[in-house]
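Protocol step 4 of 5: obtain the predicted structure for the target chain.
Materials: sequence only (see below). No template structures provided, no constraints applied. The aim of this step is simply to have a reference model before the mutagenesis design in step 5. Sequence pasted as it appears in the construct record:
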Amino acid sequence: MLRLAWANMMFRKTRSAISILAVAVGISLLLVLVGMTQGTLREVAQRMQGTGADLLVHPQDMNPVLETYASIPVQAVARARAVKGVAAVCPVVVGGMMLHGKHQRIFGVDPGEFRSVGAGLRLVKGRLWQAPNEILIDERLARGLGYKTGDTIERLDRRLTIVGICEAANGARVLMPIKTLQEARSENGKVSFLLVKCAPGESPANVSARIESDLASLDLRTMFLSEYSKELNRSFQGLNEFIAAVSTVCLVISFLTILLTLYTTVVERTREIAILKAMGASRTYVMANILAESVILCLIGVAVGAGLTLMAKDVMGVVLPLLTVEITIGWLVTAAFLGLLGGLLGAIYPALRAVASDPVAALTFE
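Step 4 output (structure tokens):
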């Protein structure tokens, strides 16, 4: 049966190749878009968790994932440090700047306080800032946009000098003195959120409850940094709907491509199918033959699609070095399943048409 299905495919090589390519493009489209969205969100979450803090304390009405305004008075820092179970607190002012047309997040921090909550802040080149307008950038930003120590950037109405390049996973790609960012944003005396490190042996849940209780007058809320990834996904809920739409497109592409290919095949081979049935081929055999051809086309299409995806990932790594594309086994399996499902659904009507053909009428017509 497989030999006959393969022979049918080889009889029309160009049409089979186009069908395989259509399925492959649908699979690759799904994998690349999902890899871009999921990879980027995961990378952002890993950077935040790389600060080493246990809790993030922010205003009740602020989404720390999306919003950057500063409204927590600096007096809250001392009150948070006095809470039982708190080992260290680092106030953070959040900002942003455009670099080469791409928005980059900025953290204004004090290096000593930042390290006290667990941030590595390991320098690859250069040094820490010693003046108000000196900044650090992470190595991925430096490599992706071609920056090096000593370069200057005209942003935030001032000339900023890159004095150091640090490892990634420090929350933001750009770090600068907290007072400089407060002044640049006209938010003196206020911070965006607090990073909190719990004392050894203390439960983050208990410390979280105490902070919210002791600082209740400030309407603050705490978030476990271990759940930052979940908060990201909640904040970008629309991405899940987008991925579902892409999955549907992938399924429809496979369905229409296989439907057109196999329907044309059945119409062209009316005589051959009639001869098979006249020779005693069962309805099941004829249908299985059509479905087998669909499965072969889809399997090859899935394999080619996976290859195209890996190629696209490598190309994007060069063209868009700051974009994280993550291809997981789970999504490879999902994409393969959708491609096969679409192909099988598309093969059903041509298979039923072949089974329903009358061999006597077909041979007489021919």
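Step 4 remarks: The chain is about 55% helix and 20% strand. Residues 13-49 form the longest helix (37 residues).
Proceed to step 5.
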